[in-house]
Amino acid sequence: MMNGSTGQRTGGRGRVRAVSAALGLLAGALTATAAGPSPAAALTPPVAITADDLTTWQTNGIVWSMAADDGVVYAGGTFSTLRPPTAAPGTGEQPAVNFAAFDAATGVPTDCSLSFTISSGTATVRALALSPDGETLYAGGQFGAVNGVGVSNIAAIDTATCTPRDDFKISVTATVRALAVTADTVYLGGDFNSVGGQTRNKFAAVTTAGASLLPFTANADEVARAVELTPDGQNVLLGGDFFRINGTTTHALAVVDATTGQLTKSYPGFIHNNSTVQDITTDATGFYTANEGTGGGVFDGRIAMDLSDFQQRWRDTCLGATQAVAVHSGVLYSGSHAHDCSSMGAFPDQPRKHLLAQAVDDPQLLPWFPDTNDGIGEPVGPRVMTQASSGDRHYLWVGGEFTTVNSKPQQGLTRFADGPDTGAPWVPNVSLSTLTPGQIDVNWQTSFDTDDGELTYRIYKDGSNTPIHTATGHSVFWDRPQLTWTDTDGAPGETHSYRMTASDGTNTSTRSPARSATVASTTEAYPARVRADGATLYWRYDEGTSTFAHDSSGELNNGFLRNAPAYRQTPAAVAGPSTAIGFNGSNEYAYSNRQHPAPPRFSVETWIKTTTTRGGKIIGFGNLTQQNSTRHDKHVYMRNDGRLTFGVQSGGMRTVTTSGAYNDGQWHHVVATQGPWGQGMALYVDGQLRTSNTLVTGNDNRPGYWRIGGDNLANWPSRPTSNFFAGQIDETAVYPTALTASQVSAHYALRNG
Predict the structure, then answer these.
(1) pLDDT for residue 11 is more than 90
(2) What separation in angstroms does the CA of 152 have from each of 156, 167, 172, 224?
(3) Are the CB atoms for 190 and 180 separated by under 8 Å?
(4) What is the DSSP letter of 741?
(5) Which of 253, 317, 308 is nearest to 286 (CA)?
């Protein structure tokens, strides 16, 4: 059925199908620009759904299935009650036995009430689909009665009266997990091996009138989980756990003739043997699969296929099983528990993200990041998506196991709309530096907005309400690069303050806390030498209170500070206006925003002050950012006895260790270098070479992140009690070359300059 106001089709499993052409992705990251660019739009195209969740009634259990038509959303699952938005479990509840209907625009239950029950075991509604005319809702699952009327795992509901149809009854011997509907046919998939007393393994088709079994035969050897019609009605798309359809090898995915069930397209070896297809959706030109894998090396992401030839358009390689997919206005929205998308240039392994968006013609993640938690059940978070229109508004409904949405309590159901966008970007983190006489550098970490990747920044000076500079920048939650603007309008000795806002074009953050700096009249010797010697990362830790470690190297290689280390520690290691930072030795650390290729030659430099007897990592290179790395080398750590070890992975763990201890409560300058043959590994402390191994010239060649203050030290020699360093750190720098002994000693000599 076509919706006249939106041009969208409803059908299949009740999802609305977008028929508009796909839009292109926004081009890559932006840097600071001259004052006066056009404000960023509130949503970054092609995203057309905000990340702001709308008030919606909740369930007390899992929502497995949804369908929508004519401004009503139907939800089925394993639950027994509904309760109002914000209500705690057990508060304000009303009965809803595995089924409920809602006003799509308000999220409030309608008066359509059905009870799906079973004589023994747990009843559940696993599939819902509407007839093209919207007059009949078909339900599948594990149940024996609807409102007391006997059925066998499948039922038809008259939507006008909200009553089960007596003329639609057929025996299905086990759970029905998927449904798709045309004007005259209901396709079903699930666990069953018999329908209407005849053999039908996992897939079957019956008539919409009288539920007579049709000749359609697509027998599978394992569970069916998804059934979807191609838009032309000629073929049926099948998904599940199976390895064969009608005896032919085709794992997890198949295309069959809509009349006979015979294979149109098979996919042997196309999907990993330990992966399955959980859901399928279509638009005018393609179909899209949600995939779940178990074990190492599996496939967990999304696949886009062309309808013209049923060949792959793209696939992503995120890890974290995908459960549901839906298309709207050229964007594929998905529900998953993605935790590692580093293989496709997105976020590294970290806590799960449950809602993602991609253009239908490109797998790159789009800036749309509402979120749920894992919730109850398995738990995996979202389980189903459906789309609904009401008036001139469009809604994306999400159901599943979750118990929070956007960090607020909300169970089982949530919904998002095409506007208005009400969420403001995060307040920018701002830091000032005065490395060059006569100017102040205003450095900031690009902010984050859950549904806009391009933000506009405005800088306000000395309390003025008129911005002195405007810039734009692109950011997503795992990549918030540093931007810098230099104020040259100030005389040496003058002190100026700066604040900043971030805007998505509609919503603007509050102003950042005021930061002040005094215009320098001379050049600081130590940082000038660090920069002159080629540092590509240089953190001075002068931020005050933020999660931002600004980079003074000129490479905009900023860092994230995790778990609130102690800012503004004095006296600092080097004379001047700079301060140090303190780490607690248990969970505080910093990591580089940018993933780096492994450097074949490098130097790491920092200053430390500690009295710890538990050791800890001071600086290193790891593959993860928000948890301890599983690959870790190119690091310096302190042993429990205060001695320093420099280690790399080169055919095993190769280390050199100082003979002296440095946990005496004094500032110490630490530099570790690795160069070519003849230089190898060298560890300097306080300007002097303390230990070396000239034969070790290699290290782990995989990409990673620079981490300061803590990371994994598993299996390294004389491993300390703690992975994390308890003490103060200052003036951290990384170089793409091995510093010479004279350079190291010159840096140390400038500590009082």
Answers:
(1) no
(2) 11, 13, 6, 18
(3) no
(4) H
(5) 308
| Residue type for position 698 | G
Cα 500 from Cα 605, distance rounded (Å): 32
Per-residue pLDDT of 34-57, as tens digits, reads 333 334 468 999 999 999 999 999
- pLDDT on residue 9: 28
Look up residue 343 and give its DSSP letter: G
* Residue written as token pair 């005259």: 184
pLDDT of residue 753: 65
CB-CB contact of 189 with 240 (8 Å): yes
The Cβ-side half-sphere exposure at 746, using a 13 Å CA radius, reads: 13
Q: Are 712 and 628 in contact (CB under 8 A)?
A: yes
Question: What amino acid occupies position 15?
Answer: R
Q: With 50 as the cut, is the pLDDT of residue 720 above it?
A: yes
How many angstroms separate the CA atoms of 402 and 384, rounded?
11
Determine the pLDDT at residue 379: 95
pLDDT of residue 131: 98
pLDDT digits (tens, 9 = 90+) for 127-181: 999 999 999 999 999 999 999 999 999 999 999 999 999 999 999 999 999 999 9
Reduced to 3 states (helix: H, G, I; strand: E, B; else coil), residue 102 is: strand
**Per-residue pLDDT tens over the stretch 210-227:** 899 999 999 999 999 999
**Helices (H), strands (E): how many in the chain?**
2, 63
Helix (H, G, I), strand (E, B) or coil at 742: helix
Tokens for 232, please give them: 């032309």
Sign of the alpha-carbon dihedral angle for 658, 659, 662, 667: negative
Measured over the CA atoms of residue 242, residue 175, residue 68 and residue 161, the dihedral's sign is positive
Whether the per-residue pLDDT at 23 is higher than 60: the answer is no
SS3 736: coil
Q: What DSSP string describes 77-92?
A: EE-SEEE-TTPPTTSS
Contact 5/389 with Cβ under 8 angstroms?
yes
- What are the residues whose beta carbons fall under 8 Å from the beta carbon of 489, sequence distance 6 or more? none
Q: C-alpha distances in angstroms, 614 versus 137, 291, 536, 586? A: 65, 45, 31, 10
Q: What distances in angstroms separate CA 390 from CA 3, 102, 158, 396, 551, one per listed residue?
A: 10, 12, 21, 11, 49
Crossing angle for the helix pair 741-749 and 525-532, nearest 10 degrees?
160
